[in-house]
Design goal:
With about 400 residues, this protein is mostly beta strands. About 15% of the residues lie in helices and about 35% in strands. The protein has 6 helices and 25 strands. The chain has helices spanning about 5-15, 25-30, 250-265, 325-330, 350-360, 385-390; strands at about 35-40, 45-55, 70-75, 80, 85, 90-95, 105-110, 115-120, 120, 130-135, 145-150, 160-170, 180, 185-190, 200-205, 210, 220-230, 240-250, 280-285, 290-295, 295-300, 300-310, 340, 365-370, 380-385. The strands form 6 sheets. Strands 1, 2, 5, 6, 20 and 21 form a 6-stranded mixed sheet that branches. Strands 3, 4, 7, 8, 9 and 19 form a 6-stranded antiparallel sheet that branches. The chain is globular and about 80 Å long. The termini are far apart.
Length: about 400
């Protein structure tokens, strides 16, 4: 080996062998800063405020809610409106119907007697949403559904906007089960009260959605993009609904959310914006040097919901979400769920299936349909793994009140 190559080899070995883990203080710091999320709704809709503490990067806990706090909306005319604790750090009160000519703030007192206040804020109401629309253009990479929101303010008083949404969709299991087992007997399933074929699932916006008309001659938002859904997603396999909420922002609030978006969504490459300090409108009364993360606005929101059925889309078919272990071994990793015939041996051995259920409590097969001549006792059943039959593993079989 040449001397130069040997020296390079030694350097590489030294670098690899001498490498030690380094945990910077920011990762292991014990400080948990207060995080406040929510809007004081000045109209007839309820107000929701979420309180939590930040967690350090090294922690295995991702959510740290603040419990047993006292949360109050205060007006500059000495009015006070208490919020009720719900669960997991969420506090709420019914419609406040505030006087738009006054200013309001949020007061927080935690269980360890720390107090926080937001600045007094004027009421800034959102204009109505003109429309929530969609197209099927997808992206340059794949076909799909795009959802947009449009709005305008004829008074030109609102030029900064924020949106969020809750999407809900109906989906179905790979197989419809008409039977069930109690471990001893295979019984007919009550499809009205024990449906495990069709379920509903919901999700919320995972990004911060902002818009501004400050540089336009008119305060008009035209088809602001909200979400794109791939054509193969189960969300558009049957029926999909999205509830869009619109908030009016002040210039300071818009700056806060813009920086928050940069800090949380646009980091990871050398071309992204550098992290910046988040300056909100909440402060610690107990210790003014304590950092509080959040911006509390005051105003009514506007909302609109739409439904989209698969029949309105260009013949899209969803890709089965699950594959079972046997099918994957036989047909490859993209194989759909399989169903099996029990008993696998000679007919008239239904007890073999029941014994299988008794001996496989950890992951039993769920019966799907009976095998045999109608009007006669079955000679067997088709069955499949629970994840292929029971939609309640991933959703709820209770139809939402707003569903058509």
């Amino acid at each position: 080996m040449k001397k130069g190559a040997y020296l390079l080899f030694l350097i590489i070995v030294a670098i690899v062998c001498c490498r030690k883990p380094y945990n910077p203080p920011a990762i292991s710091a014990p400080n948990g800063y207060l995080v406040v999320e929510g809007v004081i709704n000045s109209g007839s809709d309820s107000t929701f405020i979420n309180l939590s503490h930040t967690v350090n990067v090294a922690s295995k806990v991702t959510v740290n809610p603040i419990l047993n706090a006292t949360v109050t909306v205060e007006g500059d005319q000495n009015t006070s409106y208490p919020l009720i604790e719900m669960s997991n750090g969420k506090y709420s009160c019914a419609g406040l119907n505030l006087d738009n000519s006054h200013r309001y703030r949020l007061r927080i007192k935690t269980a360890d007697n720390k107090q926080y206040l937001s600045d007094y804020m004027a009421v800034l109401n959102s204009p109505p949403i003109d429309s929530v629309s969609y197209d099927t253009q997808g992206t340059v990479f794949s076909p799909g559904l795009n959802v947009y929101v449009s709005s305008h303010d004829p008074n030109n008083s609102v030029v900064y906007y924020r949106w969020d949404y809750q999407e809900t969709w109906i989906f179905h299991a790979n197989f419809s089960s008409f039977f069930k087992s109690n471990g001893d007997t295979v019984l007919g399933r009550d499809l009205l009260n024990d449906n495990i074929t069709y379920c509903w699932r919901s999700d919320t916006a995972s990004t911060i959605l902002l818009g501004s008309t400050a540089k336009l001659s008119k305060d008009v938002v035209d088809k602001q993009p909200l979400i794109s859904i791939e054509s193969s997603s189960e969300k558009v396999g049957d029926e999909y609904s999205i509830l869009v909420r619109q908030y009016a922002l002040t210039a300071d609030a818009y700056t806060f959310y813009t920086n928050l978006k940069k800090n949380t969504e646009q980091l990871g490459s050398i071309f992204d914006a550098q992290p910046s300090q988040l300056i909100g409108n909440l402060h610690s009364v107990t210790n003014p040097s304590d950092l509080v993360i959040g911006y509390v606005s005051v105003g009514s929101t506007s909302s609109q919901r739409i439904f989209i059925t698969n029949k309105q889309l260009p013949g899209w078919h969803t890709v089965p979400l699950y594959s079972d272990s046997v099918c994957m071994l036989a047909f490859g990793p993209n194989a759909p769920c399989c169903y099996y015939v029990y008993p696998p041996g000679p007919p008239n051995q239904v007890d073999a299936y029941i014994n299988y259920l008794k001996n496989n409590d950890a992951d039993p097969l769920i019966p799907i349909n009976a095998i045999g001549i109608p009007g006669h006792p079955p000679i067997g059943y088709t069955a499949s793994e629970r994840k292929c039959v029971d939609c309640t593993l991933r959703g709820s079989n209770k139809k939402p009140a707003f569903w058509k």
